[in-house]
Amino acid sequence: MTKSATVSKKPRKQHSPEFRSEALKLAERIGVAAAARELSLYESQLYTWRSKLQQQKTSSERENELAAENARLKRQLAERDEELAILPKGRDILRKAPEMKYVFIEKHQAEFSIKAMCRVLRVARSGWYAWRIRRLQLSPRQQFRRQCDKAVSQAFHQAKQRYGAPRITDELREQGVKYNIKTVAASLKRQGLRAKAARKFSPVSYKPHNLPVFDNLLNQDFTASAPNQKWVQDITYIRTDEGWLYLAVVIDLWSRAVIGWSMSSRMTARLVCDALQMALWRRKRPKGVIAHSDRGGQYCSADYQALLKQHDLRGSMSAKGCCYDNACAESFFHTLKVECIHGERLISRDDMRTMVFNYIECDYNRWRRHSACGGLSPEQFENQNLA
């Protein structure tokens, strides 16, 4: 093989301690293999990180883990108890035709879950629902609406109630199901399904300061023809039952991906520096990137500006009091709060950190469709355009 044909080895991804901690929490909930797929990691990485973390854990933390494991086992035991309660009543039809089993399920659906009865009687839930539709003798129009409602409802809940008719139409089209937007909108209305909506928010004013600021290099031009040309940054406040949790993010305007983030109970210069450091790690420390932010004291601090200089980044700041100059970052925070936070009860800072981590890394970057990406998610857009 000639030198020109040699394929260079793909550089190893770097992950901050904060990313590793949240990744391990995800692995505890859904399993190492599933978490590795969600985050595009090797399973061996998660096992290595978990081994190192376990060496540092205190006995009280291990007790908490045992309590969580006990809760999981109790849930499994409850499922087994339900199956054991079904068996005496359904023993006589275990070897009967599926139609007789479907009659049993219909008769006892108020007493037991459909899932448990199908599992015990060894029939597919899809078969039960198909039999039920045939039994009801729906007209072709009713059958179409039933199928449409099922597909729309499934897509709506898979998107965690975040999509309206346009994005659900795109989602179904990608799955090979072609309904027009009016049909999807009518189905949503018929089922009473509404995407999560915004609520009123009282903006927080910034304290005046005499720290140095940068000129506005973006001038509200939020387009980019390639990665690592323009990054935008901002901080938001998230309410918890323990007080505020502050979130700083870095967004690449090319794909709208959140490439850096950090969370803390204090709004300091370190918060924005940690978010920028994560972006630099992920993007292999590119040079000459326009790093845009507002004029908050954290972005005007000596530590932040020294970090820009160290990595040859071009500082840029919004005009005083003009939120439109940083509209993309503001838009992301709006989306985060509407789709992930609003409507949820107040929880601890740690639980909120986990919720925000899951939204950014597992939902927004990987799956959430973005109009600026042609209806693709940021990760899909990058994979398609960097292939």
From TrEMBL:
Domain of life (superkingdom): Bacteria
Key words of the record: Coiled coil, DNA-binding, Transposition
A GO molecular function held by the record: DNA binding
Gene3D superfamilies, A to Z: Ribonuclease H-like superfamily/Ribonuclease H
Entry-linked SUPFAM superfamilies: Homeodomain-like, Ribonuclease H-like
InterPro entries listed in its UniProt record: Homeodomain-like_sf (IPR009057), HTH-like_dom (IPR025948), Integrase_cat-core (IPR001584), RNaseH-like_sf (IPR012337), RNaseH_sf (IPR036397), Transpos_IS3 (IPR048020), Transposase_8 (IPR002514), Transposase_IS3/IS150/IS904 (IPR050900)
Family statement: Belongs to the transposase 8 family. Belongs to the transposase IS3/IS150/IS904 family.
Record-given protein name: IS3 family transposase
Organism: Enterobacter roggenkampii
